[in-house]
Design goal:
Shape: globular
Structural class: alpha/beta
Strand content: 15-25%
Bound molecules: adenosine-5'-diphosphate, magnesium ion
Distance between the termini: 42 Å
Strand order of the largest sheet: 6-7-4-3-2-5-8
Number of strands: 22
Number of helices: 25
Radius of gyration: 30 Å
Length: about 700
């Protein structure tokens, strides 16, 4: 280990106890090493000096000028009081403006002297303004060590207020470097570095903070990205090899009564080719002797549930129990209803277990699971509580995998001495590069075919101003016997604001669609589960024509007669979420519609997102776009919750090539030494161990 890096950050000059605790809380920086690996998220070019005369708009984020001060001025009073330095560089005149710290800055500046100023350009009455610019004398700048490109570090509101903004972090980095310089141990093997022509760790860390040239910066980034992705791949693939070389998979050799009579007597429709293929793939896994760990990807509505059900029957045919874990109570209840209905003719016991299962029922379920009289259990994360014990759990399905994390999967595994087969299902189409990293330890099956007779959903985008027209359309659809979802954003379940939106929206809807002619129900995550179920049922039975809901209905809900999905404030949803919501309609034979409502003013990114939704129904295409739109460091929401680690520098949306290289190299190493046990691979083992999943799961997002 690089011991120096483990030292507490408080010992760094310029930090101390108070700042150390802030850095720890806000950015998770506790040690010198943490700081050293806090990389800039972008760079600004400080080699370029702009001329005032050549500036004619304020489209640039930052500019640097070399100017002389020609005069000072105090303007205004009270909160509008400001201090202005007029400057010139021969090509034109500009103003530097300060609202705060006036007396301090006034003392520092000298008329007639040459300064380098750096800041965000803006025009007021045709005059170029820089508000609160960075400023230093040309002499000072020339004397100070600095490269042409300067890093910009992420920071937080709190840190900013406490003089720990991006510039202060840069200063800390300057203090840190001499302490660690030449005490950094290389973390990649020398032959690998030589073969791939990588920059050394020392040079890469130096250049990532203090680039000596653009080229060196690129090389530093490449080296660090490679190391990160390589470490992750090593870890994932090592695990996977461990799994597939052990002969501990339960065997399901029998295709028995449950499966066969279901297939013959209960199936309401023929399976699609893709469904058949996936069932065959899973069947092969379950007779291989190795534990199955498979990801099933299929767009919303592609019929994953049925595949899962049939595989669970296969487990039961072979004397095993099966369970299915889903992210919401609504979805659990729905699957339970579907399963009991479809399995009505079979002698099979299915139970439902969620956080709101009553104590008495719970006791009976526990008993049934232990004695083995329960064949199939459906539930929420209540399933992974330690108290739940199966007699012989052989097959586990995790629906809507993106809502859970890796650690949860692992907990289900540990329910047996011998791990059950695991099938994780997701409708969030994950681009290949990402799937490799997120789910590198899984085999992948894809349902790439929708059941026949589905009409593609038509997607329309309306601004709030056209609400009446949308209401008219809804009325028209309801008259034809259709049902309608109206969904409100809910970023965090606790945000009161969001509920206010939902309540106001509901009132508006009831006013526009008054009872008794129309029946409208509300469903959201904070309702009691009985109330939720009551609302859901009214809608399912067709008693209610309109359901007003939060995004709790995003996953899995299946009401084929609902043909209109209205998404309010659609600009507040991510692409994958919008696509999920759209998937709630288009399940019957009728033409379905998805209506995206948004405010009038949209950011260019929101406009792209909504435009993408209108232009395509293809989930995979949308996922690629989503990744590109969201860019580095912002893989938020659903996908990130599946990541077992935080990426410090690699960007899964953009670094596909580095990832492929990392994967190939990992493969090569593991071929010679599957468990990284050889002494010469000690460095690699340490690297892989750094990426063992530590992340616990945030249940708060699950209603
Ligand atoms: P998802 O993959 O999104 O979980 P579901 O499993 O909920 O999709 O299936 C969507 C709908 O399609 C359900 O109403 C289901 O009954 C129906 N379905 C599934 N398979 C077929 C099939 N082979 N033919 C016709 N309808 C099907
Ligand atoms: Mg589903």
């Amino acid at each position: 280990m690089n011991d120096i890096l483990n030292n507490d950050i408080k010992f760094l000059s310029g930090v101390g106890e108070r700042r150390a605790s802030m850095l720890r809380k806000e950015l998770g920086i506790a040690t010198l090493g943490d700081l050293l690996y806090h990389f800039p998220f972008r760079y600004i070019d400080r080699t370029r000096i702009w001329k005032i005369g050549e500036m004619d708009d304020d489209s640039l984020t930052y500019i640097q000028l070399k100017v002389r001060i020609t005069g000072f001025q105090h303007v205004g009073s009270g909160p509008k009081r400001r201090f202005i330095a007029t400057v010139s560089d021969g090509s034109g005149v500009a103003e530097l403006v300060w609202f705060k710290g006036i007396s301090w800055i006034e003392k520092r500046l000298e008329q007639g002297r040459e300064y380098i100023v750096f800041g965000r350009p803006a025009f007021f009455n045709g005059v170029l303004n820089l508000v609160h610019p960075e400023i230093e004398s040309a002499v000072e700048q020339a004397n100070r060590f600095r490269s042409g490109v300067q890093g910009v570090y992420s920071t937080t509101e709190v840190l900013n207020r406490n003089q720990l903004g991006t510039k202060a972090i840069y200063t800390l980095m300057c203090n840190l470097w001499p302490m660690v310089d030449h005490r950094l141990r290389e973390t990649l093997p020398a032959d690998l570095i030589a073969r791939l022509g990588l920059m050394s760790l020392h040079d890469a860390l130096f250049n990532i903070h203090f680039p000596t040239s653009q080229q060196a910066l690129r090389a530093a980034e490449f080296r660090l990205k490679f190391e990160e992705l390589f470490g992750i791949q090593l870890n994932i693939m090592k695990e996977r090899r461990g799994r597939t070389t052990r002969n501990d998979g339960f065997l399901f050799p029998v295709v028995g009564t449950f499966f066969n009579s279901f297939y013959k007597d209960c199936l309401p429709f023929p399976l699609t080719g893709a469904q058949k293929r996936v069932i065959r793939e899973i069947r092969q896994d379950t007779v291989s002797g190795h534990q199955m760990n498979r990801l099933l990807q299929g767009d919303v509505g592609s019929g994953k549930t049925l595949v899962a059900l049939m595989c669970m029957l296969l487990a039961c045919d072979n004397g095993f129990q099966a369970c299915m874990m889903v992210p919401t109570e609504i979805l659990a209840a729905q699957h339970y209803a579907t399963f009991t209905r479809m399995l009505a003719g079979l002698d099979i016991r299915v139970e439902l277990l969620t956080g709101s299962t009553k104590k008495r029922e719970r006791t009976q379920i526990d008993e049934g699971l232990r004695s083995g009289t329960i064949h199939i259990l459906i539930g929420t994360h209540a399933l992974i509580e330690d108290a739940v014990q199966f007699r012989n759990l052989g097959f586990v399905v995790i629906d809507e995998q993106h809502r859970f994390g890796v650690a949860q999967r692992a907990r289900l595994w540990s329910k047996n001495e011998q791990p059950p087969h695991v099938l994780v299902m997701t409708a969030t189409p994950i681009p290949r590069t990402l799937a490799m990293t997120l789910y590198g330890d899984l085999d992948v099956s894809v349902i790439d075919e929708l059941p026949p007779g589905r009409k593609p959903v038509r997607t329309l985008h309306y601004r709030d101003a056209h609400r009446l027209r949308v209401f008219g359309f809804i009325r028209e659809e309801i008259r034809k016997g259709r049902q309608v979802y109206i969904v409100y954003p809910l970023i965090k379940e606790s945000e009161k604001m969001d509920y206010k939106d939902l309540e106001d929206g509901y009132e508006g809807i009831v006013r526009a669609f008054p009872p008794p002619e129309y029946v409208t129900v509300v469903v959201h995550g904070q309702m009691k589960s009985a109330d939720k179920e009551y609302g859901m049922n009214l809608f399912k039975q067709g008693v209610a024509q309109i359901m007003v809901a939060t995004s709790v209905i995003e996953v899995g809900v299946d009401v084929p007669n609902a043909s209109v999905m209205v998404i309010e404030s659609a600009e507040r949803f991510g692409l994958s979420q919008l696509h999920q919501l759209r998937g709630r309609v288009g399940r019957g034979a009728d033409q379905s519609y998805c209506i995206l409502m948004s405010g009038d003013k949209l950011s260019s990114e929101s406009r792209k997102r909504l435009g993408a939704m209108v232009s395509t129904n293809d989930g995979f295409e949308l996922a690629e776009m989503d990744l590109q739109l969201r860019g580095p460091g912002d893989l938020s929401g659903t996908l990130q919750s599946g990541l077992a680690f935080d990426l410090k520098i690699a960007d899964l949306g953009k670094d596909g090539q580095v990832l492929t290289l990392a994967r190939n190299e990992a493969e090569r190493v593991l071929q010679g030494d599957p468990m990284l046990a050889k002494p010469e691979n000690r460095v690699l083992r340490e690297l892989a161990d750094k990426y063992v999943s530590k992340k616990e799961i945030d249940f708060s997002m699950i209603s």
